[in-house]
């Protein structure tokens, strides 16, 4: 008999079928037992008499009849909640060993280290698996929005001859007889693609040897980037807000039931995203809280939270764009503001209290770039391929980058970014804790 997918059973009431999937939630009521079976299309309640003992998460094949459930037993939460499978026989294809914790609840009640130490099991919990359905929708929303801006998708290397974002947070790797670096961001390559396609987007892994453990930083993360040629600063702000809003709206529309299940508020993106310079934001924070960070060279995490509260209160917006960070605090390729070079034509997008994006107008003049690289104590020789692109018709350009795990974390109100990464890497962990 051919396998039927669970979703297809809705049209097969009264028919005998063979289903295949994994066992969840076994309930024994004397002679009668129930279990849920799930495959890639849905979940089916199975019921039968004198069934063999089934362990949670075993892979099985089940033969039986699709019946309508009695009215009182209908489960409105399930797409297949009106039917059930009357089991005739079960064949265990791959038995699951006894699980190290209780898996049968609506929510896994585990500490983060356990959640990660048993990742291949915990990812199979429906609530956790749904985090990555949301993540898939984030990428899809981003792709659609970027395409509609006329960007071409490109795929760039993650091994590089130079480090992009400066600072010490770079992983050096042995590369045959030489040294190389893992990219801290796809920055240099996306810029090199401007003269090729004018507008590009990409989804790339990025690596940072973050020296501390925080709830918002990973050593390996996924960035979603756009880079656009022939643009002015305001056009870049329009573009990033467009992509940000479209992405979030796409998730809101396509992940409704997951967001409800997580009990998170609906995403609020108004017509326009409020825009402030960093100094204006600090002033507002000072006026609202009395905390004076107006001389600080950056927004601190608590400032980001407070300015997002302001955006929600005053503009009913979950997003706020902050511009003009100090030039010294940004990467070398950032263009200083010609009107006040101490500050730069840079921006961050904050979403519900956390930075989910940053970017800038770039320095697109070859000689200026060489000078900045030298001024920052770096060797232009290490940027030879990058600089080559600037010698032959690089237009004014700029772009931005979203952190995929950050957005996912913020949409679902997860407490730690590690929950938004399938197999998170940090200072203390590659799959398992490093010092074990
Ligand atoms: P930035 O360093 O701000 O900018 O990174 C862009 C976005 O990526 C996310 N992000 C991270 N997420 C998890 N763990 C990390 N360690 C981490 N670091 C960054 C954040 C951040 O907003 N090249 C520039 C972008 C540009 O100018 O286009 C860059 O990488 O959400």
TrEMBL record:
<comment type="similarity">
    <text>Belongs to the class-II aminoacyl-tRNA synthetase family. Type 2 subfamily.</text>
</comment>
<dbReference type="InterPro" id="IPR006195">
    <property type="entry name" value="aa-tRNA-synth_II"/>
</dbReference>
<keyword id="KW-0547">Nucleotide-binding</keyword>
<dbReference type="GO" id="GO:0003723">
    <property type="term" value="F:RNA binding"/>
</dbReference>
<feature type="domain" description="Aminoacyl-transfer RNA synthetases class-II family profile">
    <location>
        <begin position="132"/>
        <end position="424"/>
    </location>
</feature>
<keyword id="KW-0030">Aminoacyl-tRNA synthetase</keyword>
<dbReference type="GO" id="GO:0004815">
    <property type="term" value="F:aspartate-tRNA ligase activity"/>
</dbReference>
<dbReference type="GO" id="GO:0005829">
    <property type="term" value="C:cytosol"/>
</dbReference>
<dbReference type="GO" id="GO:0017101">
    <property type="term" value="C:aminoacyl-tRNA synthetase multienzyme complex"/>
</dbReference>
<keyword id="KW-0436">Ligase</keyword>
<dbReference type="GO" id="GO:0005524">
    <property type="term" value="F:ATP binding"/>
</dbReference>
<keyword id="KW-0067">ATP-binding</keyword>
<dbReference type="GO" id="GO:0006422">
    <property type="term" value="P:aspartyl-tRNA aminoacylation"/>
</dbReference>
<dbReference type="InterPro" id="IPR004365">
    <property type="entry name" value="NA-bd_OB_tRNA"/>
</dbReference>
<dbReference type="InterPro" id="IPR002312">
    <property type="entry name" value="Asp/Asn-tRNA-synth_IIb"/>
</dbReference>
<dbReference type="InterPro" id="IPR004523">
    <property type="entry name" value="Asp-tRNA_synthase_2"/>
</dbReference>
<protein>
    <submittedName>
        <fullName>Aspartate--tRNA(Asn) ligase</fullName>
    </submittedName>
</protein>
<keyword id="KW-0648">Protein biosynthesis</keyword>
<dbReference type="InterPro" id="IPR012340">
    <property type="entry name" value="NA-bd_OB-fold"/>
</dbReference>
<dbReference type="Pfam" id="PF00152">
    <property type="entry name" value="tRNA-synt_2"/>
</dbReference>
<dbReference type="InterPro" id="IPR004364">
    <property type="entry name" value="Aa-tRNA-synt_II"/>
</dbReference>
<dbReference type="InterPro" id="IPR045864">
    <property type="entry name" value="aa-tRNA-synth_II/BPL/LPL"/>
</dbReference>
<keyword id="KW-0963">Cytoplasm</keyword>
<dbReference type="Pfam" id="PF01336">
    <property type="entry name" value="tRNA_anti-codon"/>
</dbReference>
